[in-house]
Amino acid sequence: MNEGHDKRVIRQPARRWAAVLWALCAVAVASPVYKVTDKDGNIAFTDQPPTLDAESVERHEVQPLNTAAPLATLPLEPAPNPAEVSIPFVTRIEQPADGSTIPMGPGNVTVEVSISPALSDSEHLQLEIDGAPYGAPQKQRQWSLTNIYRGEHRLRVHRLHSSGAQVDVSDTSTFYVLRPSVIR
Questions:
Q1: What is the rounded distance in angstroms from the CA atom of residue 59 to the CA atom of residue 50?
Q2: For 30-77, where are the alpha helices, taking DSSP H only?
């Protein structure tokens, strides 16, 4: 294949793009644009009147550009930092009710908690009875306590992140357990 022909084939698209860019520049100054085709069939756009050796010349009048004033915009308020966003967490012991008494029996108690919003994948609940953790942190909102000794007991539930950081804690709820005792 002819090497000179390859270069011409490659350069023609580049020349066309250059011509289009020049035409766009001419549009910006609103001057006449000439489309010139030479004897080899090459097309060029120019803002200069063509020379006599051009095969054909077309004059194009460029219309003024449409313009519009930009719309007024309000300044954007900065988005709050996620660390500054305060989510109202609610962690509340529903059962046993504060001040309630568990009647005579084996000392079995069911603890139920209501929470809002729902736990995320990285959160758990930890039950605390009389100041000490009870069991491992869990996702369930219910605990079954067995063989709780008689007397007064204080409950709290901690909402914990997987890192161990406390997200929220319930108010302390007090309940009483009645159990038979053996007097000697």
A1: 10
A2: none
